[in-house]
Design goal:
With 202 residues, this protein is of the alpha/beta class. The protein has one domain (5-157): P-loop containing nucleotide triphosphate hydrolases (Rossmann fold), CATH 3.40.50.300. The chain is built from eight helices and five strands, in the order βαβααβαβααβαα. Strands 2-3-1-4-5 form a five-stranded parallel β-sheet, with helices on both faces. The longest helix has 20 residues, at 55-74. The chain is globular and about 50 Å long.
């Protein structure tokens, strides 16, 4: 049985976490990989119903997601978590829990761009004071310092991001190659190999 791993998407609301997680799930299923997606909004409705948005409640929510991811990973599943998970310390706890099979994917995007998109109108409501404690407006987001993968939905297409994520996971040995080679520019491939070497994966 192929070993599992946890792919932890983190980033501000609207930065592309859920979109990429769902697209990645399809790609992995096409490679016959056992995969489950734990989306932050869905988890809130089912696993964490009743929790609010205080720091304590947010930490409990993220720990719960990490606990489930670890169980799945231990049983050979690729667990994909897509949650804002704003606090570095709790993401670090989940990394320590899962160990070397934890892959942090930082969805980086400027706040101005996210406010311009604002498909759910959440940033507008937060600016108007209708939503309190909204991450990025009146509650902090602590970016990862050493994520395995960084993507930016403002400067790259979904397809480019997916190709880079897939190629990184192939190089790490976490997923099998696809029916077709995952092609990315040679300079990007070298950058990925260099980073994985620095992080101790290669």
């Amino acid at each position: 049985m192929r070993k599992g791993c946890t792919l932890w998407f983190t980033g501000l609301s609207g930065s592309g976490k859920s979109t990429l997680a769902q697209a990645l799930e399809k790609k992995l299923r096409n490679r016959e990989v056992n995969v489950e997606v734990l989306d932050g909004d869905v988890i809130r409705t089912n696993l964490s119903k009743g929790l609010g948005f205080s720091k304590e409640d947010r930490d409990i929510n993220i720990r719960r997601i990490g606990f489930v991811c670890n169980l799945l990973t231990r049983n050979g599943v690729v667990a994909i978590a897509a949650a804002i998970s704003p606090y570095k310390a709790i993401r670090g706890e989940n990394r320590a829990l899962v160990g070397k099979r934890f892959v942090e994917i930082y969805c980086e995007c400027p706040l101005e761009e996210l406010e311009r998109r604002d498909p759910k109108g959440l940033y507008k409501k937060a600016r108007a004071g209708e939503i309190k404690g909204f991450t990025g407006i009146d509650d902090p987001y602590e970016p990862p310092e050493h994520p395995e993968i960084t993507i930016n939905s403002m400067t790259e297409t979904k397809e480019e991001s997916l190709a880079r994520i897939l190629r990184t996971l192939e190089l790490m040995g976490f997923i099998p190659p696809g029916p077709e080679a995952t092609e990315i520019p040679p300079d990007e491939e070298e950058t990925i190999k260099k980073k994985l070497g620095e992080l101790g994966y290669l």
